[in-house]
Every structure is written in C-alpha cells, then in structure tokens.
Design a protein that fits this description.
With 293 residues, this protein is α+β, with helices and mostly antiparallel strands. The protein has 10 helices and 7 strands.
Length: 293
C-alpha cells in the first residue's frame, strides 16, 4: 500500500501530457496557423490558455490558439464587429478543412480533428498599435472587443508556480481533474486564478504529504473566496468570474466545501498512519486514476 505522498506523486504524473500528445498538438497548431495565414493573414500565433500555461491535463482536448492580426489586416479594424470577424475565421477554417464543422463561440471558433480528438479554440486578436503586447479580442455576448494579453497570463502563472517551489501547477491540474469529476461547475481559468492567490498562504507541515496538504488548503481557500471578484491576471479584461452564473458559483462553493471536509478527514487519517483510509478518501475526490495499491 503506497503512502499518501507516493500515491499523489503517481497521480500527478498521470495527469501530465505525453510526448506524443505534445508533438501532435504542435503539428496541428502549425497546420491551423498556416491555413489561417492563407486566408486572413495573421502575423503570428501564441499557444495560450491552459496549454500555454502548462496547466492542461490528459486527455488533451481543446487548445487555445491566439492569432495576432494587425488592425488593417484582411479589412479588420473598427468597422468589423466581433461576431462578424469570428464568422470570417469560421468560414476560413471550414474552407481549409473540408468536412469539419467549426463552431462559433463567445470569443473563439472551435474546430476538432478526428483521430486525435484534439481541438483548437481559435481566438483572433487585433494588436493595439499604441501598446505592444496588448490585444483586442472579440466578445460576442458583450458585442464589443475586449483587451487581453496571453503572454502576461503565462508570466503570472509561472511566477506563482515559482513562489510555490514548482508545486502549484501540479496542484492546479489535480483541482481541474476534481472539477471534471464534478461536472465542471467552476470554469477552469477561475480555479487557476484563485490558486495563484491561495497558494501564498499555504504553510505545509513536514510530516504529511505536501500535495495532500496543498489540495486541502486550496479547497478551503476556494470555497471561502469563490464569491469574491477575481480580476483578470493581466489587468486588462473583465473579471474572470464576470460571465459565471450565480447558480454555478453557488454549486461550485457547495462542492468545494464538501471537498474541504473530505480532504480534512483524509489528512487526519494520514496523520494517524491510516494510509489505506486516507488514500481511499483521496480516490473518492480525485477519481479512479488516483492509485490505492
């Protein structure tokens, strides 16, 4: 029977992307970028979202592909509304990949490739000519363009991970797996942003699994602060939880509170030396990929 620390190490390794998934994702990213360049002429692309921040988990599904356009490229600019520009992207993708049905979303267009199951959320972005590194992306629900900076998101995540001695990203991945098992009541990015702050008050004890303590700490922090206003990490766009319905927030808080109680029980069993009991509770929280033997 593994200790809790050993079980967590094995579980965390199982969440990591395989080398083949990484290669295939990058190959498909290049194909999508080349296809869009033939039609709309983006200047460059950024692999953003959880993949870009190295917080994506297996199995890999949708990858955010941030396409940067100059304001004048392809007739874009103030005269083109956000939904109209997204429709241009959708049309270009469907022309380049016959038989694929691209899906219009609030800020992106999704296209999935058969065989791998990997899809891309293509986010068109207009570079601000006066402020390098600041981009305008469409928001259909708002009917307007909003500001974003995915490179700043990556930087903020990396800095928080460094403060946590490289343990934050594995914890974020584990929280995401838990969220999947709950039916995703909380948007993944909101969980990440809360984790950046929550990890700062984490003080692990030396005689218990650090990852187990980190999970328990983040569950409690998130349950207590999910109703707070969470600014966008780059300080540009609307708050991260601005588009999350109250029902989802309440449900997320209830699930996080329940997880907090179960995690506290697991820590107590580990403290008493009952590794099978502690691991069984963590398996209830984190699913069948968490090893108990």
């Amino acid at each position: 029977m593994p200790t809790v620390a050993q079980a967590f190490e094995q579980f965390m390794q199982g969440l990591e992307l395989h080398a083949g998934e990484e290669r295939e994702a990058k190959r498909q990213e290049r194909n999508v970028f080349d296809a869009m360049r033939r039609h709309l002429g983006p200047r460059e692309s950024i692999l953003s979202g959880s993949y870009g921040r190295s917080t994506a988990i297996r199995p890999l599904h949708d990858i955010d592909l941030f396409l940067i356009f100059t304001a004048a490229a392809g007739g874009t600019g103030d005269a083109v509304g956000p939904e109209a520009f997204l429709r241009r992207v959708k049309q270009a993708l469907e022309q380049e990949f016959p038989g694929k049905q691209a899906k219009l979303q609030n800020r992106s267009v999704n296209i999935e490739f058969s065989g791998t199951g990997i899809g891309f959320d293509v986010v068109p972005a207009l570079e601000d000519p006066r402020r390098p590194g600041i981009y305008w992306i469409p928001d259909v629900r708002k009917g307007d363009w909003i500001q974003s900076n995915p490179r700043k998101h990556i930087e903020v995540c990396d800095v928080a991970n460094a403060r946590a001695t490289q343990r934050l990203k594995p914890l974020i991945k584990a929280i995401k797996r838990w969220n999947q098992l709950q039916g995703k009541p909380v948007p993944s990015f909101l969980l990440e942003v809360m984790a950046y702050s929550g990890i700062d008050s984490f003080r692990p004890a030396s005689h218990l699994s650090v990852y187990a303590q980190g999970m328990a700490h983040l569950y409690q922090f998130m349950s207590e602060h999910i109703m707070d206003q969470w600014p966008e990490p780059a300080g540009l766009g609307p708050p991260v939880n601005s588009g999350v319905g109250q029902t989802n927030l309440v449900q997320g808080q209830q699930r996080l509170s329940g997880a907090t109680r179960k995690a506290a029980q697991a820590l107590e069993l580990e403290r008493m030396g009952d590794m099978p009991g502690a691991n069984a509770l963590w398996r209830e929280l984190l699913g069948p990929d968490y090893p108990v033997r």
